[in-house]
Amino acid sequence: MSFEGPWPYIYIAIAGWLATDFWRWSGVIAGNRIDEKSELLNWVRAVATALVAAVIAKLIFFPTGALESSPLWLRLGAVLAGALFFFFGGRFRQILGIAAAIAFLAAGLALTGA
Amino acid sequence: MTAETAPEPQSQMHWFLIGARGLFSLPAIILMLSFVGFAAFTAEAKIPVGQVMFMTGMVWALPAKVILVGSMLSGAHIATAFIAVTLSSVRMMPMVAALIPEIRTSRTPTWLLLIVSHFVAITAWVFAMENVRDVPRYGRVAFFAGFGITLTITNILLVGIVYGAVSEFPPIVSGCLFFLTPVYFLTSIWISARHRVIYWALGIGLALGYLFAVIAPEYDILLTGIIGGTLAWWGERMLRRKEAAR
Questions:
Q1: Does residue B164 fall inside a structural domain?
Q2: For A74-101, how does the pLDDT look when each residue is reduced to its tens digit (9 = 90+)?
Q3: What residues contact residue B99 under an 8 Å CB cut-off, 6+ apart?
Q4: B246, part of any domain
Q5: Which domain holds residue B142?
Q6: 0.90 exceeded by the pTM?
Q7: From the centroid of its chain, how far is CA A27?
Q8: Which residues 44-103 of A have a C-beta within 8 angstroms of B?
Q9: How far is the alpha carbon of B3 from chain A, nearest alpha carbon, in Å?
Q10: Are B227 and B218 in contact (CB under 8 A)?
Q11: Residue boundaries of the structural domains of chain A
């Protein structure tokens, strides 16, 4: 699509803002009434998480831009290194996991001459 | 305790500022680095910076924006983009629905909650659910608004400022920033999961996300969400029933 004129802004407002805030507003309305233990909510949770997982998988397996030409084993190795530090990182597991994954990736990119 | 010795209630502005201080917390800093990565992603995709700042403020949730940008780049019809984005944002509903009873009082007007709900995304939600219990109930909406609004505005400005610089980054730097987004999401989802079905959906979603990206790249995210999510829900439910029967 062309990125000129007002059309991209309309596109973002409808396909982005309305598509997202609709659910936030529904969440407010549902508020107290939604049953935390209902099977429907469990299914919605699972579908929502799988959707985000699909986005993550695409970013890892089919990256765009600078990582497009990087080897797949390097990206998977970075995720594994991150997972290792994440699961044994204790209190600081999030920052340790992220740092380990990025450090592994950076070292690999430097060695493979990216 | 008499009324004289009771602590003076703090003003709404006080709690708003306490929330705003959350900008210097670890989750907020990781999110900002992810937004630098997002700026790099959009700069390489040649999406004008005004549109990137606009969608940061209007959509806010990072996964929804990544899907939106993907749709824009592939020239998807606006209806197709709407469906893909809206399906990725369904999770906002239970997130908001879980947060609202935690922060409102009996006198909080619904219109205020509708406005404040816009600032709910993974990071703000995790931060609020963790910290809101330390805030007296009357100050919780202000506390969340302070954190959410400050974080959103900071990231709009951040994206605008770094957008021009990231295209000059050496490939190794933009590559690492790009990779922050998936790694950050993986750790965040794992940490904020309060139900076993989330781990199942994450694992199955990663595998099916790869599979469908290969065999049906146009609908991969939708198919993964519905099929993978249903499989995870069904499998976890079967196991739950087995455990209950034991």
A1: yes
A2: 999 999 999 999 999 888 899 899 999 9
A3: A27, B120, B125, B128, B129, B144
A4: no
A5: 12-180
A6: no
A7: 21
A8: 44-67, 70, 75, 78-79, 82, 86, 93-95, 97-98, 101-102
A9: 32
A10: no
A11: 1-34, 37-62, 69-114
